[in-house]
Amino acid sequence: MAEAHPLEDEQMVQQQFDELLERCEAVCKSEEDYERIRQAFYFANEAHRGVKRHSGEPYITHPLAVARIVAVEIGLGVKSVMAALLHDVVEDTDYTVEDIEHRFGAEVATMVDGLTKLEGAFAQDTSKQAENFKKMLLTLSDDIRVCLIKIADRLHNMRTLGSMPKHKQMKIASETIYLFAPLAHRLGLYAIKTEFENLSLKYRFPDEYNQIQQKLADTEPQRLQFIEKFNPPIIEKLKENQIEFEISGRVKSVYSIWKKMKRKQVSFEEIYDLFAIRIVFKPSPLIPEKSQCWHVYSLVTDIYKPKPDRIRDWVNIPKANGYEALHCTVMGPEGIWAEVQIRSERMDEIAERGFAAHWKYKLGGRASGDEVQNDGELDRWLAQLREALNHPSEDAVEFMDNFKLNLQVSEIVVFTPSGEAKTMPKGATVLDFAYEIHSKIGNRAIGAKVNYKITPLYAEIHSGDQIEILTSQNASPQVEWLEHITTAKARGHIKQYLKRESENNIVRGQELFETEMKKLGVPLQARVFRKVLPAYHSSNKDEFYSKLGAGIIRLDGLDKILKQNAASKLIKYWTLQIANPFKFLGGGSSDGEEAAEREEATRYVMAACCNPIPGDEVVGFKMDDGRVEVHKKNCHKAVKLSAQYGDRIVPAKWSSEKVMSYLAVIEVRGIDRVGILYDLSKIITGELNVNIRELHIHSHDGIFEGTISLYVRSSEDLKMIMEQVKAVKGIEKVNRTEASMVD
Questions:
Q1: What's the pLDDT score for residue 405?
Q2: Quick one: which H or E segment has residue 263?
Q3: Which of 64, 116, 121, 122 has the alpha carbon at shortest distance from 95?
Q4: What is the CA radius of gyration of the chain?
Q5: Distance CA 341, CA 344 (A)
Q6: Cα–Cα separations (whole angstroms), residue 592 to 584, 586, 599, 657
């Protein structure tokens, strides 16, 4: 890339700033507002002078772009635009937060401080990424604008990610899909959330992204043809009823299509709901918006028959991120189902710009966005968030994971016995609901009456359920409860209780053990624990004391254990050695480096969560013990690790140097018949000469389902095997089991 002339750079920067001022017309109410933005720009421009981005542009172009997103795409006000312009000054220059406060006031300085990454040393076992997230998230409940500006900052970084090295792209894209996309969705920024998802997919799986993009382009003529048939009757009907409106077709995002293809194991051609028809109407001031939504719905369903189970009423019960709309699926021309979304202009702006638009309407149409007010769902969510952040864990990674639970946006509405509505995440259990009522109720819960029927604690609850929690004074939280909850609130209270109990048990267990050892006259030495810990299946002293204090183990026979031979009774059940199937991306190496690489070959292990095999796109993560754990790129754990420990990413790819077998699992489903198992075995082991490790088949109502674990050499081999299996008479579906997808 040819280096730009300084004069050309200055002209480009000035042009971008002039464009920013033009776009700030909606948020600037006086010449004084414009002047404050100018002063912030001049200060930031001087502070970053001479610094370049990876793309070669002057660094100030980044704060300018972030400020523009803040003003135009999110709709915040003057102080937020100033903070966006200044957001990297403290982190990247010698200026301090005090300097910002002195020049621009305490409010702007506080926002800049919240946007500044942490400095100083971190413990070796601490994730710097997670620490930075933790600081930013802790400011969220005090001033949500900090988080909105951070989202704008990340959006511009994602838009310009192409200039970064590949491993940085993986780290930043994983952070984005793990935290920023759900955070944007939770704050109602649907357009930004969609762009986050698409850009993350583009850099994580470029081939799949480009394939879907191409197929969308190829099928566009058919969609336009359908819309030309579908829309005219609706347009005519709405005009007859003197409704002012806009109607448009919205294509499903590339990420949504990709996610559905992975989740349902279907091809692009098998996805029927690729787009939706959106009707945005101008409301009459004399009629409630809700009534007008249902009026438009009745006009549409007079023309096209609705699918009863596909009506989504977010008008009467908005989503927790503020989203309001009426969705229905109707039978269109030629027997094709089509989704119709009905919104008012206000609802449409809130759907695209989230809570920033809420504030605008709350303030009577003024778009300052700086007078943050507690409003409806936002206030309720922030209250829940403050409670979840009330006792932040010292472990920043755990803190971040717990926070992510608060970002769930697929929701249900359930009711207390008195009829009070409670919004819960989809998939929540009776236990989650108990803790939603109160921690004391959750800690003593033993079950529930759901719609007047006795229901266990772990049962999933559904929209419309009326739930009465049953409690007992003898009940208390158990470790296994953590496997049956979905909310951060429940997880926090259970962990807090268990930690307190564990500490009490350790103290109690230590006292019991020391008393018993005194009775036996044996001093507490290291050799004692070398005998005792294996005998009681404990990995360390705290675990041993905790089990003893909780009454899980007893000291009967302790004297016999102490008299046993001191030799270790631990059995080494297995060892895992994997030849080096990878080559680091990069140039050649010297003989010494090759020798080191051969030695390092024994340090790779395949992740059990996703079982990667040759041909899969993979990524490695360096673990604390120095080994590299290898995951498929779309493994949920790989995305999580990339978001939390981006500096441990090890670029890797398959090499053809070694021929090995790798374990893969396929699921089969079909019509049950005599000989189906024989035919499957004949194909796999007889004709294809593939070793089957395990085979589980379950038959019911004439249908059989099962899993087959087998050893293959590559993903291409597995694909060929699946095609052969699918050709067996009666086999309806063959899928490779995949890691869970990240939402």
A1: 63
A2: helix 254-264
A3: 116
A4: 30
A5: 10
A6: 16, 16, 11, 19
Backbone dihedral angles phi then psi of residue 338, each to the nearest 5 degrees: -140, 135
Question: Phi, psi (5° rounding) for residue 707?
Answer: -130, 145
What residues does 467 pair with on adjacent strands? 450
Structure tokens at 361: 């309407």
**C-alpha–C-alpha distance, residues 713 and 470, integer Å:** 54
Residue 509 CB-density burial (10 A; 0-12 exposed, 13-18 middle, 19+ buried): buried
φ, ψ at 400 (rounded to 5°)? -65, -40
Q: Which two tokens stand for residue 22?
A: 């033009």
Task: Render pLDDT for 419-451 as a digit per residue (tens, 0 to 9).
Answer: 887 888 888 999 999 998 998 999 999 989 998
Residues assigned a catalytic role: 91-92
Token code pair at residue 207: 């081939």
Interval 482-494 mean pLDDT = 85
Distances (CA, A) of 49 to 41, 54, 154, 164, 400: 12, 15, 22, 21, 35
Gap between the terminal Cα atoms of the chain: 37
Q: CB neighbours (10 Å) of residue 543?
A: 16
> How far is residue 635's CA from residue 103's CA, in Å, rounded to a whole number?
48
Residue 713, helix vs strand vs coil: coil
Torsion angle, alpha carbons of 132, 137, 142, 146, to 10: 70
Main-chain dihedrals φ then ψ at residue 279, nearest 5 degrees: -115, 120
Q: What is the pTM of this model?
A: 0.66
Check: CB of residue 681 under 8 Å from CB of residue 635: no
Query: Which H or E element spans position 219?
Result: helix 206-240
H or E segment to which residue 276 belongs: strand 275-281
